[in-house]
Structures are given as structure tokens and as C-alpha cells.
């Protein structure tokens, strides 16, 4: 089984007045796992459904290994899909669910059974063949759905938020397993998710979408460390917005001068985007900030600080360094000396805590 | 889901009540259950039992089953019964073939047309059968004159074939639409049709395959209830058949009842039991397959 190259070319799709895809251009290299990440309504699921054939773009094309498949009916496409909602056929047991596609292709019964057994082994459910979907947990159902999607040895695997209905622990375990499977099979995989942690942890490439357009695509570390736009910066991970003042290619913020990365707005008054982990906090009686809250997260502690000029910011630091930084204590802070993104000045606002999924 | 939400606090109330109160309440519920059941039983069984007594009690000879035995030897019994069953079978097949694909298409690709389909399918309920049959007979009379020169002339003759009046099937399909629509709508609402269809299409299934292997097996309960409502309707329909001049089972019962009072009541009881039996077979067939799958 090897992966195909998937290309989106100028994909456009509107639903009435809503623009779901607005000229999406994206290439997925063979054998890689790409995560389509974005807030709801950004068009990520529509893009995926265009590859599966359930959605037809108004303009543009989907190419599989250079071949235009835009008009190929859904049942003749070389792509297996796992859905967000539980999609197993309730009237069939697990074996028959996995072997459904093989049966459609009239594969002999013995071969079907062997292949289904092999796939169930692969997804870690070798002993569940005779059960019915309603006898399985949510995680098990999605594993079976994964086995079913892989049964026809497709060259593209499409995952439409397959983990969103599962509880946290199962979600993490299953995403690791999906990644392991994907690597061992070398299948091109498109993983739609709104959970940035999920995207960053399993993908080779993360594509951030916004309003039907591609905002940035790159390796997880690249998207996180060098976000191309303020939108990406705030959607992926958590960002502080601190007031700063542009001065040439540098920006003055919180008494420091930091190099600017990316575009600058026309005005000198800007917001500087700073990650909580790049804020270095030390306990100091004469510090310029006061700790408002402190939330313990096991390995780290997230502090909410307020500076004397009223700006609030978040800072992450190792748990053992935070012992003396209880709420009400004064503290000093410094920003790590590295290039920062700046955006146009917004009104003074509390730190942007990206998405709910960030926590 | 929505109607379930207000039920939760209501269900929590008896659990929160003290045990003694709960016990008393449980007993009250049981008593009321019995009262309702008894009242309903009285309402339904009294006419049945009195009818039965009337048919088996001869003032001269005492207990006799002659009235029932006569049914089977009466002229036209087998013929009319078979005709009714044939009509029922044909109606079920036609009405399901018409509605199921239409409802699926509306659900999957034109959800905004759903209210339109619903209104169309419910309309037959508000049209009185007498109006309906008047319309049909007008068309049947008008047809031959205007269609004489076309191939449809043969069709309009053929649908009126007394051996198997297809025109009745057409009429019954219309009359059964509201019941079939309701049953199938409930059945389709219970499964995630779109996801199942897409999952099957993704596995390479063609549309007919999706319909036969995915939709129908998961819609058995809905299909069974649609079928037996239609069956009950056809076995009991009198107006249309009588006014168009055919003699299926219900019309035959009325015809025969004029000559022999005891036998006419016996026939009614027989047809009731027969219909019950058929419905029982149909519904158990539906549930057995469901649990066996």
C-alpha cells in the first residue's frame, strides 16, 4: 500500500451566501499525514468531502497523482474515509462491516474473512469480529471504522474529526495509533480537526485554514514557532498580545527591544504576539507585575500576571520554579530574545487564550 | 432528543420521594394500569364476544359452528379473499417503491422539499373517499372517449380488468400514502441516513447496493409497520371498491350479509381474526429478523 499525491487546485464551494471554500490551493505529498486545522466553518471538512466525492466544488479541481478526479463518483474513488459520527452499519457485525467494501467488489468469502481478520488485528480488535456496533465503545467503533476504511487498500485515507466524539484518554491513545498505522502503511492521510494539539502532535504538515483559504502550511514546529499571520499565531497555541512600538525592524515591548518577524502594519503602535512559554518570570519584591492567578498543570504552571500599566499576560513555567509565585506576589518578567510577530493595535484586551481546545 | 429533556426532572421526582410514598405510588400506578386495561378490554371485547355468542347460539339447536362452516362453502369467498390479498401485496410493493426512493432523495439532496413531500403524502387523509372515487370514475368514463386513438386506450381498459383491477391498486396506493409516509419517516429518523449512505458509497457501493444492503436492512421496523398498515387498509377498504363495482373481500362480506344474519356476523369475526393473524405474522417476521441480524 502506498500513498498518492493529493492536490487541491483553486477549490471553490459556496452554500447559498456562505463561502465554504474560497480558492483553496494545497498539495499533499505522497505518504504524509496532513492536518487541516481551523475554526468551525473554515471549510476544512468541505475540502475533505471534495476528495471523498461527497461534495462537488463550484470551481477548481481535486487531483490524485495528477489525475483530475473532481467528476469521479464517490464509489469509484480510491479514498477510505472515517467519519465524525459513528458510521458502522448497525445491521452488520464487525467482520461484515470491515468486509463490506470487499463484498461490494465480489472478493471471495474466504479471502474477505482473512483480510478482515488481518485488519482487525491491525487496529487492535482481533477478538471483536462477531460483535455488533452497539456492543462496542465509541473508541472501538472508530477503530472498526478505520479498519473498514483501509479494507480496500485505498491510496488516500480521509479522517473527518474521527476522535471528536471520544473522551480525552481514548482520543490521545487512538491518535497515536492512527499515526503509527499511517507511518507503517505509508498511506497519504488527510486529517481534519479543530483541535490544534491533535494536529501538532500527529501531523507531518499542518495546514491552517480560515474562511475557505489556506492561511499557512508547514511542519508543526514551523507553524507553531513561526506563524505566518497573527491569525495562525493565535489559533495555534496560546498567545499574549502586548502593546508595543515599532522602531525600524525592531519593536519596543515591556522595556525590551525584539526583532520583528513577518509583516508590519502601517502604524507604529502595534500589538506584539508573545507565547506564554517565552515569558520568563522571577519572583521579585520590586517586580513590575503582580501574579493574579496560578493554575497548576502537572509539569508546568500557567500564571496570569498584571503589569503596573494594566496589561495582563500569561506565562508558562516549570512547576518547580513556581513555588514562590502564589497569587498576590510581585514578580519580574522578561521576554525571550527572539523574533516576534506584530499585529495592528487592538483595544487593550486580556491575553488571547486561543481556542478552548488549547487547554 | 428534545422531548426527553423535560422528562428527566419528572422521572427524578419519584426517586427522590421517601420509600413509603414511592411504594404507595407504585401501587396506585398498578391499580390505574389495571383499570385502564380493563376499560379498554371491555370496550373492545364486548362487541366481539356478543357477536361470537350470536353466531354460535342457535335458538333451536343450541351451540353450533354452522355459521363458520358456511363461510368456506359460500360462493365467492376464496375468490374475493385472494383478490384482496393480491391487491394488498401489489399495493404494498408499489407504495414502497414509490415513497422510499423519493423520501431518501429528499432527505439526502433536497431537505428543503421535505415539508412539500409531507403535505402531498398527508393530503389523502383529508380527501373523503367518496370524493376520491367520484373523481376516479369520472376519469375512467372520460378516458375511453379521449384516448381511443392512442396506446393508452388499452391501458385504461387493462387497469379495469375485473380479475385484477389495477385501478384499485392505484387508488389504494394514494390512500395508503399518509400511513406509509409516517412509518418510513419515523424509521429514517432513527438512523443517520446520510452518514450510512456516505460510508457505503465510500466503500464502493453503487446506489442500488446502498439501498438494498444498507438502507433497507436498517429500516425493517419502518418498512414492516408501513406494510401492515397498508395491508390493514386494503383488507378493510369498502367505499372505493364498491362504487367502482369490484368485489374484493370487504365488498363480498357486505354482499353475503344480506342473506344470512348469523353468517354475516361470522364473516366479520372471521375477517377480523384473519387480519389480526396476518398482522401478527408480519410484525413478528419484522422483529425476528431485526434481533437475528
Describe the secondary structure blueprint for this structure.
The complex is a heterodimer of chains A (359) and B (293).
Chain A: E1 6-15, E2 18-28, E3 33-37, H1 44-52, E4 59-64, E5 67-68, E6 79-82, H2 94-98, H3 100-104, H4 109-122, H5 138-150, E7 156-160, H6 168-185, E8 188-193, H7 196-202, E9 205-210, E10 213-218, H8 220-225, H9 230-235, E11 240-247, E12 250-253, E13 256-259, E14 269-274, E15 279-283, E16 289-296, E17 300-307, E18 312-318, E19 330-335, E20 341-344
Parallel strand pairs in A: 3-8, 3-9, 6-7, 7-8
Antiparallel strand pairs in A: 1-2, 1-4, 4-5, 9-10, 11-12, 11-14, 12-13, 14-20, 15-19, 16-17, 16-19, 17-18
Chain B: H1 4-16, H2 19-56, E1 57-58, E2 62-63, H3 66-73, H4 77-109, H5 114-122, H6 129-147, H7 152-158, H8 166-189, H9 193-202, H10 207-215, H11 220-236, H12 239-244, H13 249-257, H14 261-292
Antiparallel strand pairs in B: 1-2
Helix pairs in contact in B: 2-14, 3-14, 4-8, 4-11, 4-13, 6-7, 8-11, 9-10, 11-14, 13-14
- What percentage of residues of chain B falls in helices of 4 or more residues? over 70%
Which architecture of the largest domain in chain A per CATH?
A: 3-Layer(aba) Sandwich
Q: Which sequence of strands runs across the widest sheet of chain B?
A: 1-2
**Beta fraction of the residues of chain A?**
25-35%
Coarse morphology of chain A: globular
CATH topology of the largest domain in chain A: Rossmann fold
Tally of alpha and pi helices of chain B? 14
Largest sheet of chain B: 2 strands, antiparallel
User: CATH superfamily name of the largest domain in chain A?
Assistant: P-loop containing nucleotide triphosphate hydrolases
